[in-house]
């Protein structure tokens, strides 16, 4: 009898253990994931409103979980037992990866299941544009050797790309020549990952005319016990004597998480592969804070603020150098979540940025010096955004409203030193006190049919532009732009997924394209004047994606074709005279009827052995102005990158060789003053050693063979046809401490 009772108690215990409830939670927010589908042998169903479900343990069977926003994931025996014991399973949102999206600038951690994060060495980058150029997908327009790289993706640039951080925070360049592009204001030491959505397919955070670059900051989690955290990183690079450092200090508890961060970087002129000096001095620093406060179990508020300051930056391709750039950025966000309701959450945020910019030619080596020029400009950027997220049984919906205002004003003074105007000073209103306001309504719907995942998105935007300068008509220019996208992706097997997307986007002219006043802002030296009567340019684009992933390798193929209508370009205005003698004439922004862009990106990653891995990436874009049958300007050539590395000493030591080949670019826009660019090959080496969870050392050699080369997107040194050459051989060392 005693043995029978003991057996019954054991069986009862096993039954209780096997039927224990599991709660499915979001990895970042720890909020329940409702209506997720589970399949475990013949047990299947959906999680309830609290993300809970129950299963009976079956040895040797896999548990499959799937959700429209989180993808599909499987669990083996040991993982199922762990989940039954803890009562929790965490999933990360993957619907972003279902879009034509590339996640770059991440480093895989030792544990395959952990989130990939930006490395310590990357967080030191003083310019996010230069950092993105590590990917073959992104090129950078270079007017300086070390600062202010403006991203170009698939031949699209400037306002054709939507560049935001977190909840839509961004800045507007105050310099007409974009010494301070919006991407340069991103505090990279607070960024956790970068999501690059290619094409007009992600419309929630703005009008993504040709693509979106979204910087996501580190997750501000909480802790059961009060604790402090911190980080400090420093590096030195030999060529250009570049010194960089960044640090973070903060604390977290049950209801708060806040951190104070800062960075300082400086450098001087570097030597190119020919041994010639390139003017590239810079000084850059920033300080800021980020905080997250839990108001209740369902509400939290986030606050961030940062101040970026740059001074004495050399721009050899421009008429002036940057003297001072002082930028302030502020963001406040609130989120409330709901249980037992189709309305899952409401997220609201308000952002503002203020840029004060000064540049001059006072330190330029001009002979003869005909004029002393100083420009002071400022921009103001205000934004508001509110989004509701709905979670239904088999679908989800994001819908909201946003508003953005951009204002620009500035004056250039020209003190004449020679000629009949000697001794006099002229003043030019470069931005014509202009303003653009955008009010948008957006929606994005996710649903699945027969194992095919669909995402449909749309944006309706009212765009109003005006100038308060007396020489410009003050009547606002009002336009309604409608953009939409529909796409589908399907798992053809456990390892293969295919997707196809079609989108149409409309974009009104930018502040530069509508209001710039006699400033040479493009490849050629012609002064540009704005055109308030520009029609919105239109992009019809189709994208095809093929993904093949196994345990040991992954293959990603992306093809795209873009048909452009009313493409914004510029042409010579023979009846307008330039203000500066150095300009051969004046061009005004105009619409051209038809243009096309098409191309591909291919990425291949493979684990050759348990220790050895390699990667291959290719990117190519073809662009053509069909109105004059000529290539579009500033299209980067075929770019091929190959890496070979190893994880040694229990993955503590990681050496890596990186080979890059850029083909000759013979397709040039002669009417823009472009010239052909020769091909080049560059080899880099880096290695890192993780001494402990707290201390890491990274070192390497850039341009190992001291190749003399320049990028096709590099502008020419002012007054010559010589492009800005890239740095020659350079040694660097980075030390990183995490507490």
UniProtKB/TrEMBL annotation:
Coiled-coil positions: none
GO MF, one example: siderophore uptake transmembrane transporter activity
Domain of life (superkingdom): Bacteria
Domain TonB-dependent receptor plug: start-end pairs: 142-211
InterPro entries: Beta-barrel_TonB, Beta-barrel_TonB_sf, Plug_dom, Plug_dom_sf, TonB-dep_rcpt-like
Keyword list, A-Z: Cell outer membrane, Membrane, Receptor, TonB box, Transmembrane, Transmembrane beta strand, Transport
UniProt topology in membrane: Multi-pass membrane protein
Tagged with keyword Transport: yes
Protein location: Cell outer membrane
GO terms classed as biological process: siderophore transmembrane transport
TonB-dependent receptor-like beta-barrel domain boundaries: 269-704
Cellular component terms per the entry's GO annotation: cell outer membrane
Keyword Nucleus in record: no
Short name of one Pfam family: Plug
Gene3D superfamilies: TonB-dependent receptor, beta-barrel domain (2.40.170.20), TonB-dependent receptor, plug domain (2.170.130.10)
Membership in a protein family: Belongs to the TonB-dependent receptor family.
Name of protein: Iron complex outermembrane receptor protein
Organism encoding this protein: Marinifilum flexuosum
Upper lineage: Bacteria, Pseudomonadati, Bacteroidota, Bacteroidia, Marinilabiliales
């Amino acid at each position: 009898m005693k043995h029978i009772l003991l057996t019954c108690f054991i069986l009862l215990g096993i039954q209780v253990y096997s039927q224990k409830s599991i709660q499915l939670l979001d990895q970042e927010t720890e909020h329940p994931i409702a209506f997720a589908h589970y399949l475990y042998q013949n047990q299947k169903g959906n999680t309830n409103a609290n993300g809970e479900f129950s299963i009976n343990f079956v040895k040797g069977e896999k548990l499959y979980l799937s959700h429209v926003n989180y993808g599909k994931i499987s669990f083996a025996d040991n993982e199922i037992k762990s989940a039954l014991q803890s009562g929790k399973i965490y999933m990360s949102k993957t619907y972003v990866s279902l879009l034509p999206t590339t996640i770059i600038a991440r480093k895989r951690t030792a544990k395959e299941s952990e989130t990939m994060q930006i490395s310590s060495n990357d967080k030191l980058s003083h310019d996010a544009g230069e950092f993105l150029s590590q990917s073959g997908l992104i090129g950078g327009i270079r007017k300086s050797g070390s600062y202010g790289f403006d991203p170009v993706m698939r031949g699209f640039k400037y306002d054709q790309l939507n560049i935001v951080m977190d909840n839509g925070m961004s800045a507007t360049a105050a310099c007409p020549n974009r010494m301070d592009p919006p991407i340069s204001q991103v505090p990279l030491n607070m960024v956790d990952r970068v999501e690059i959505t290619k094409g007009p397919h992600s419309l929630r955070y703005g009008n993504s005319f040709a693509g979106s670059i979204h910087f996501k900051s580190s997750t501000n989690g909480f802790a059961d016990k009060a604790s402090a955290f911190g980080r400090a990183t420093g590096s030195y690079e030999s060529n250009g004597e570049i010194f960089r450092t960044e640090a973070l200090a903060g604390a977290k508890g049950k209801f708060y998480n806040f951190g104070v961060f800062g960075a300082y970087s400086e450098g001087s002129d570097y030597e190119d592969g020919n041994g010639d000096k390139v003017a590239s001095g810079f000084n850059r620093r920033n300080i800021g804070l980020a905080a997250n406060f839990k108001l209740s179990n369902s509400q939290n508020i986030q606050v961030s603020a940062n101040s970026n300051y740059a001074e004495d930056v050399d721009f050899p391709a421009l008429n002036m150098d940057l003297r001072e750039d002082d930028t302030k950025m502020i963001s406040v966000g609130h989120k409330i979540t709901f249980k037992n309701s189709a309305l899952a959450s409401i997220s609201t945020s308000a952002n503002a940025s203020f840029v004060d910019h000064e540049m001059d030619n006072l330190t330029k080596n001009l002979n003869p010096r005909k004029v002393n020029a100083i420009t002071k400009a400022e921009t103001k950027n205000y934004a508001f955004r509110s989004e509701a997220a709905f979670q239904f049984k088999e679908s989800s919906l994001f819908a909201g409203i946003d508003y953005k205002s951009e204002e620009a004003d500035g004056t250039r003074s020209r003190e004449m030193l020679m000629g009949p105007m000697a001794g006099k000073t002229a003043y030019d209103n470069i931005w014509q006190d202009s303003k653009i306001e955008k009010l948008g309504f957006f929606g994005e719907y996710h649903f699945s049919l027969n194992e095919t995942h669909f995402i449909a998105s749309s944006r309706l935007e009212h765009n109003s532009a005006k100038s308060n300068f007396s020489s410009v008509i003050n009547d606002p220019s009002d336009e309604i732009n409608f953009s939409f996208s529909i796409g589908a992706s399907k798992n053809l097997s456990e390892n293969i997924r295919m997707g196809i997307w079609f989108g149409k986007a409309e974009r009104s002219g930018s502040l530069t394209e509508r209001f710039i006043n006699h400033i040479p802002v493009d490849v050629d030296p012609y002064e540009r004047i704005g055109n308030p009567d520009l029609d919105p340019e239109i992009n019809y684009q189709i994208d095809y994606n093929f993904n093949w992933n196994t345990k040991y390798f992954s293959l990603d193929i992306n093809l795209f074709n873009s048909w452009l209508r009313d493409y914004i370009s510029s042409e010579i205005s023979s009846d307008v005279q330039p203000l500066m003698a150095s300009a051969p004439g004046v061009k005004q922004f105009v619409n051209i009827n038809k243009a096309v862009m098409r191309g591909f990106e291919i990425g291949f990653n493979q684990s050759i052995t348990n220790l050895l891995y390699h990667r291959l990436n290719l990117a190519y874009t073809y662009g053509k102005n069909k109105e004059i049958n000529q290539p579009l300007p500033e299209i980067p050539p075929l770019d091929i990158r190959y890496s070979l590395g190893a994880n040694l000493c229990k993955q503590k030591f990681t050496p890596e060789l990186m080979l890059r080949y850029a083909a000759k670019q013979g397709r040039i826009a002669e009417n823009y003053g472009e010239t052909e660019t020769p091909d080049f090959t560059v080899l880099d080496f880096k290695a890192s050693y993780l001494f402990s969870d707290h201390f890491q050392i990274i070192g390497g050699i850039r341009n190992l063979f001291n190749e003399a080369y320049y990028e096709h997107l590099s502008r020419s040194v002012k007054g010559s046809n010589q492009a800005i050459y890239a740095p020659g051989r350079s040694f660097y060392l980075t030390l990183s401490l995490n507490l």
